[in-house]
Predict the structure.
Amino acid sequence: MRVVSGIQTTGNLHLGNYLGAIKNWVAMQDQGECLFFLADLHALTGNISPQELANSTIEMAATLLASGIDDRAILFNQARVPAHAELCWILNGTARMGWLNRMTQWKDKAGKNREGASVGLFTYPVLQAADVLVYKATHVPVGEDQKQHLELARDIATKFNTDFDVELFPLPEPFISKAAPRIMSLRDGSAKMSKSDPSDLSRVNLSDDDDTIAQKFRKAKTDPEPLPDSFEALAERPEAKNLVTIFAALSDRDPQAVVAEFAGQGFGAFKPALADLAISVLAPIRTRLTQLMDDRAAVGAQLARGAERANALAAPTLLAAQKAVGLQV
């Protein structure tokens, strides 16, 4: 099993990133060959300054290392492996405008100003396909919002193999972990926790200190009702459900076990317990992150070592694709 996944370099990582992706990445290191990359090429489709992009790349790499990514996996930033961009250009000849026009994220991000959106934003999913196909990935961790992109990658792989009569690209399967919850905003239980939310109180950043973490959970939106004895009973209480989900994910427990423990209690009792739990999990990560950020050169060197390993894996696939389309003889 070869697992490939990336995360865009657009700012501080938060609790939603950790519980929804990073924690599972750490566990995957024992389940197969893993390549995890910082998607700095994808970040170019948005408004980000060069200095911000450079800083975010190192900061996010340090955060992943602090969270438990190590030499069992290959960690690198996308731009250090030119095969991603080169294969993307080849696959642009295979992908179809109609396929990309139907992509939900393109519609959402471009909005009404499609004429003013960048070409990179439109072809973003083709680069995503190249990201995984260049390593002949067998599995790709995906959330609900990325399933369509993986299906596109499979469509591109199938058409390429068929058009050029090769068996180059295996069709990557989704790697969906039941333990990866969808973490919502602390201010709005109907919105996903996001680093783009203008309110810092909506998220717990992995760099937040203990007091800030406690304050954010104390101020988290809830309702006046006590916790029930059934997790299903929280279906119509999104903020309460979110806090229980966070508690369960942080403690590696089933949400039902959490509500059973706190049944009948109000959030005046639950929130401090949740804050203490979050601090116990996140404080060691923050401490390690601080140490790593004091030596940015060492983090950069680790990315370079990862890129060397990734380049070695990507090169044969790129060469085979070039030969298939006639760019190499």
Summary: Residues 110 and 116 are 8 Å apart (CA to CA).
